[in-house]
């Protein structure tokens, strides 16, 4: 098996001992969590009360280990902190693009998987993702100007998402109607002449909608005000039984018996390309994340029990068919997700539903976390996620290049893989934590070494719109995920191999 490794000229000192070189500096924070006062150069993990102390706001779970840290004697902490600040500065710099809508974190489309001809599109999807990632950075002690930039970006992002809210009852694509239904959002929020055909097929969907609702909820909004009763009650209406796994003209549709969430919240034009009865396991994982922040565990398991069945079905298929997971292609052996063709997206979003959203992993209706862990940690040419980490710490997927199974890595999937491991870390046994520690440390070192001079990390596609296929991604999306990984790495830093072994 050959490996394509991405190398850049920027080199930084090895960061395997990052956790031991941070100085803990006390900070003061206002109740709103925006007036953080930076002191010195240390990074303060803080407590849950340091940020987002308003009880109506979503709380970012840091789970900081209560351990002493060593004094920074060799600049490793400065490298880590500088990398984060440069990434934030890059995101802030994109605001000067005259083509952007204020508050937007952009997504580009390309006709090629390598995004070589990427073109900016007016898409809602990227903004709630980066908004969520930036929330974890508010737990760090950074320069005051950087913290102010984060606050400005998140505030503008909320305004952007609010401006593009639509009503569920309307007359046609992108035509606002009478505000008597529930709030929904669509993938493309605006069209140009080149997008006229897509305008006929672009309708509101539950993926964009629940992601944006989650962001608004994290901002402290009462999202139930957007619906006749509650948001969770409203979207129960978009569950379907006996619908089909995401349509692909090359693969016979598979009909499932689960009562899952339909991808689309409006039937739209009957002749549109996308199927009306459309299941997607990654979409349902994102809906689970949202529902998990809105309902207690008992109500969650009662209201959407079969969503857990469907998600566990997807997990099982990943483990059963690892040898078939040549990318791009049927990564589960059946065509579960045409929108998210890489397995890293499923493991990330599902682990996020657990770690950030509190989705249950015990009980009759819960995520089968043991099977997720089995897939993520599978190695030794078993085509699990760990088998997709290069020796330089990066992650990617296999492609057939000149008949050879080749690992092609990128910054985006390296960030998603790292986040998945960090999100499930507290569920691992001691021996698996030893394995995870090395994988995470190597990945963090790779990400720090491969940051671009402008502070960004490279764009890579992770979402595709079918028929005609267009690949979507952006440096902003990648950078947001890398920054989240760096923040979570610091806040939930796994103990060293020896320390874990001594537990």
Q: Can you give a write-up of this model?
A:
The structure is a single chain. With 503 residues, the protein is α+β, with helices and mostly antiparallel strands. It has two domains: 1-144 and 389-503, no CATH class; 165-373, no CATH class. It has 15 helices and 13 strands. The chain has helices at residues 76-93, 126-135, 144-163, 196-199, 206-218, 231-236, 281-294, 297-303, 305-320, 343-355, 369-377, 411-424, 430-449, 475-491, 497-501, and strands at 2-4, 107-110, 119-121, 166-167, 183-184, 239-241, 244-245, 259-261, 278-279, 395-401, 404-410, 463-465, 470-473. Strands 3-2-13-12 form a four-stranded antiparallel sheet. A hairpin with a 4-residue loop joins strand 12 (463-465) and strand 13. The chain is globular and about 50 Å long. It starts with a strand and ends with a helix. 50% of the residues are buried. Mean pLDDT is 75; it is low at 5-58, 61-75, 170-180, 267-275, 325-335 and 495-503. This is Squalene cyclase C-terminal domain-containing protein. InterPro entries: Terpenoid_cyclase/PrenylTrfase.
């Amino acid at each position: 098996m050959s490996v394509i490794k991405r190398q850049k000229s920027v080199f930084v000192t090895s960061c395997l001992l990052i956790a031991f070189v941070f100085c803990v500096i006390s900070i003061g924070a206002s109740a709103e969590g925006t007036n953080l006062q930076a002191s010195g150069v240390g990074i303060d993990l803080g407590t849950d009360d340091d940020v987002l102390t308003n009880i109506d706001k979503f709380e970012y779970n840091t789970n900081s280990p209560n351990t002493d840290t060593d004094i920074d004697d060799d600049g490793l902490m400065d490298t880590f902190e500088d990398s984060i600040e440069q990434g934030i500065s890059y995101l802030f710099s994109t605001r000067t693009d005259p083509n952007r809508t204020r508050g937007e974190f952009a997504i580009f489309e390309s006709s090629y998987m390598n995004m070589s001809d990427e073109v900016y599109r007016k898409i809602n999807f990227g903004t709630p993702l980066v908004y969520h990632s930036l929330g974890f950075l508010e737990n760090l002690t950074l320069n005051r100007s950087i913290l102010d930039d984060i606050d400005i970006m998140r505030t503008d992002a909320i305004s952007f998402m609010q401006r593009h809210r639509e009503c569920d009852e309307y007359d046609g694509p992108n035509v606002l109607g009478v505000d008597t239904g529930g709030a929904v959002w669509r993938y493309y929020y605006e069209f140009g002449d080149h997008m006229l055909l897509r305008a006929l097929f672009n309708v509101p969907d539950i993926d964009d909608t629940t992601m944006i609702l989650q962001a608004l909820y994290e901002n402290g909004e009462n999202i139930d005000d957007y619906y006749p009763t509650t948001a969770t009650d409203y979207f129960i209406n978009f569950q379907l039984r006996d619908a089909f796994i995401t349509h692909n003209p090359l693969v016979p549709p598979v009909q499932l018996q689960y009562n899952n969430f339909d991808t689309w919240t409006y039937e739209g034009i009957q002749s549109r390309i996308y199927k009306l009865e459309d299941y997607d396991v990654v979409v349902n994982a994102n809906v689970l994340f949202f529902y998990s922040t809105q309902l207690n565990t008992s109500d969650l398991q009662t209201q959407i029990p079969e969503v857990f069945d469907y998600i566990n079905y997807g997990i099982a298929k990943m483990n059963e068919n690892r040898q078939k997971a040549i990318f791009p292609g049927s990564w589960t052996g059946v065509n579960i997700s045409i929108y998210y063709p890489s397995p890293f997206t499923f493991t990330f979003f599902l682990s996020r539903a657990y770690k950030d959203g509190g989705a249950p992993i015990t009980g009759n209706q819960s995520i089968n976390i043991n099977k997720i862990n089995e897939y993520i940690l599978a190695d030794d040419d078993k085509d699990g996620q760990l088998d997709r980490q290069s020796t330089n710490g990066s992650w990617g997927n296999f492609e057939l290049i000149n008949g050879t199974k080749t690992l092609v890595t990128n910054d985006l999937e390296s960030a998603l893989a790292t986040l998945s491991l960090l999100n499930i870390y507290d569920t691992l046994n001691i021996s698996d934590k030893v394995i995870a520690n090395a994988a995470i440390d190597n990945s963090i070192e790779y990400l720090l070494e491969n940051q671009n001079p402008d502070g960004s990390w490279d764009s890579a596609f992770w979402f595709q719109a079918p028929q005609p296929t267009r690949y979507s991604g952006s440096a902003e999306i990648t950078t947001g995920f890398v920054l989240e990984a760096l923040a979570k790495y610091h806040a939930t830093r796994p103990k060293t191999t020896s320390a874990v072994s001594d537990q």
